[in-house]
Amino acid sequence: MFKNLKLLGLAAALLLAVTLVACGGGDNEGESDNSGDSGNGDEGDSASGVELGEKELEVPYVAWAGAIARTPLVEQVLEDVGYTVETKQVDAGAMWSSVANGGSAFMTASWLPATHKSYQEKFGDDVEDIGNFVDQAPLALTVPSYMDIDSVEDLKDNEELGEAVDWTITGIDPGAGIMQNTTTALEEYGLDNWELQRSSEGAMLSQLQKKIEDEEPIIVPGWKPHWMFAELDLKMLDDPKEVYGGDGDRVGAIANKNFKEDSPAAYKVLKRLTEDYNEEIENELLVKINDGAEPEDAAKQFIEDNQDLIEKWTTDLE
């Protein structure tokens, strides 16, 4: 009997010891988990000690060659800093309105002062101009160089050319600012017989290339920088009334008014990027894409080849 009691006592003591160890281990493990959670939270809110603020950024862009080229570069640079970037392809009006109302952080394709003048007048009080990707981007009606016209004025009452192209200017997406400019040009230059065909940039370029292969006439809205001027023999028509903005627009980054406060590191990166980005960089990306590279791959290659520049954009963000 005493032997059984002794065994029961030992079992009870062992059970108590196990319970105490388990409780103690549980407390220590809990402390470790909490410390780990805290560390992950701090790291998620900053990159190398830099306060990121709002980390999820929506960036709208239009389906124009330059925007398609530069947007993935901006996206990848910001993601390397620690942001999550969602890019969204929209038309120009939606791009401006989403930035102005705060649904999007910033855009990569404002054309000012001429092409997006109406959007700037409508949304200007709710956005901030961060800087330019391209300081001078001329726009104009554009034709193959073999065509015997040099000015928009040459289209007026030009029966031979009008009949050859069915009195049609082959346009791009209807929301594009250059389409609005062209509509204005038809009025300003008295081109009553002419019509502007709505299309897309891709469809316009396909038609342009086909016509050039057959050495046939075609008139399109054109802008620089664009790979078509590097790959095709084109000329911009003179615009004496400066409907298309004279020497050219600035292509820039426009942000929501709260962007600087909401995502301070992203604001600094974007501002630095626009200070260094230029037509040469854009043409480099455009040529790679036109040669078959995906826009994301062209951006990735640029980052790999220009680490000094990337470091300049993304370090010392305190």
Provide a compact summary of the structure.
The chain has 318 residues and is an alpha+beta fold.
List the keywords.
single chain; 318 residues; alpha+beta; D-Maltodextrin-Binding Protein, domain 2; 2 domains; three-stranded antiparallel beta sheet
Describe the structure.
There is one protein chain. With 318 residues, the chain is α+β, with helices and mostly antiparallel strands. The chain folds into two domains: 151 residues, 3-Layer(aba) Sandwich (D-Maltodextrin-Binding Protein, domain 2); 98 residues, Glycine betaine-binding periplasmic protein, domain 2 (D-Maltodextrin-Binding Protein, domain 2, 3-Layer(aba) Sandwich), CATH 3.40.190.100. 50% of the residues lie in helices and 19% in strands. It has a three-stranded antiparallel β-sheet, with helices on both faces. The protein has a three-stranded antiparallel β-sheet with strand order 10-7-11, with helices on both faces. The protein has a two-stranded antiparallel ribbon with strand order 1-2. α6 links the parallel β8 and β9. α2 packs across α10 and α10 crosses α13.
> Which strand order does the major sheet show?
5-12-6
| DSSP strand content | 15-25%
Report the order of strands and helices: HEEEHEHEHEEHEHEHEHEEHHHHH
The structural domain count equals 2
The CATH homologous superfamily of the largest domain is called: Periplasmic binding protein-like II
How widely separated are the two ends?
76 Å
CATH C-level name of the largest domain: Alpha Beta
CATH architecture of the largest domain, by name, is 3-Layer(aba) Sandwich
**Outline, from the CA principal axes?**
globular
Q: Determine Rg (CA atoms, Å).
A: 30 Å
Task: Output mean pLDDT.
Answer: 86
Structural class: alpha+beta
- Quickly count the helices: 13
Helical percent range?
40-55%
